[in-house]
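Researcher: Please translate sequence to C-alpha cells.
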Amino acid sequence: MSSYNHVVLVGNLTADPELQYVSSGTARGKFSIAVNRTFKDGSGQAQEETTFVPITTWGSLAENCSNYLTKGRSVLVAGRLRITNFTDSDENKRKYAEVVAQTVEFLGSPSSVAKQDKPAAEVEEEVPF
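Model: Translation complete:
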C-alpha cells in the first residue's frame, strides 16, 4: 500500500525564526505561521479561524529563513506532516504536530534590510530525516 504525505500552507510568521545547530553541525530552524480561514457560520455570519502551525527547516533552508524572514512576513511552505508521540512529566501521552519544510517561498515585501547575524544555539540532537 502506498502513502503520500505532502502539505502546502500559506501564512504569516508569528515570530522571527529560531536557528540552532545539531551536534552534527547541521542547521535546524523553527518558526510558526498563522494560517487564516474565513467562512460563514450557520446563521450566515462571516467568521475567521486562525491555525498556528509549527514549521521545521533544515540545512541551508534553515539558514536562509533565519537570515531573511521576520515576524509578519508571508510565506508559502511545502513539506511533510510529522506527528511525534511523547509522554510528558505527568505521564500523560501527548502528540506534537509540525510541518517539516522542503521548500519555503518568501511572499510579499521583504524588510528593507536583512536581519543582523545572531548567534545560533547548539543542540544535542540528530537530524530526523
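Researcher: Any highlights?
Model: The beta strands are 7-13, 18-21, 27-40, 46-58, 74-87, 93-106, 121-122.
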